[in-house]
Amino acid sequence: MKDPIKIMLVEDHKLIRVGIKTLFDEADGFEVVAEADNGRDAISKALSIKPDIILLDLGLPDMSGLKVIKNILDENQNNKIIILSSRNNEEEILKVFSLGVYAYVIKDISTEMLLYIVKTVYNGGMWIDPKIVPVLRERNDKIIPQKQTSRAMFKNTHSNLTQREYEVLKLVVEGKSNNDIAQELCISEHTAKAHVCNIIQKLLVDDRTQAAVKAIKEGIV
Question: Could you tell me the pTM of the whole model?
Fold first, then answer.
């Protein structure tokens, strides 16, 4: 039997921490091995317990989340840190990636997607919440290249996507809702939803978030 992914939760709000722990306790393949509600405790436990994944909130009571990240990674660059935050500050986002975190997740993520992200990071991948992609593209193209492949290469790789679906996919990557997409492209919300469903099927993913992740990773938008 495969060993579970060992997770440490760093979150100062007990109710949120308990909820996240319950999620992992009820899912197969995960084990919460440590919890911390402040930065100093997080640093100490990360170094002594050595979890596979550290799920970290940036808003801690005793020190900044950025300082916690730096202290942990200065001791062991192999630590895999996922930021789980309600904050969307541009400078903070850029800084955490420059320090070496593997993922930045906004707290309104679905529970299923959070499990998927933890598995992705555990297996060596990175994940960037679609809501912060525009920030990274605008401010630091070293984190996400502006375009990794040409439009012609995209057509060769994903020729089953129509031009309109490609336009919709770009808006999905920017975190736009179906209503936002409809307004921007001057189409009905029903049509926008249909385009998104088609994109999900054609990219062989489960939902719009995974479609956005695939688009970013493969540089197709």
Answer: 0.67
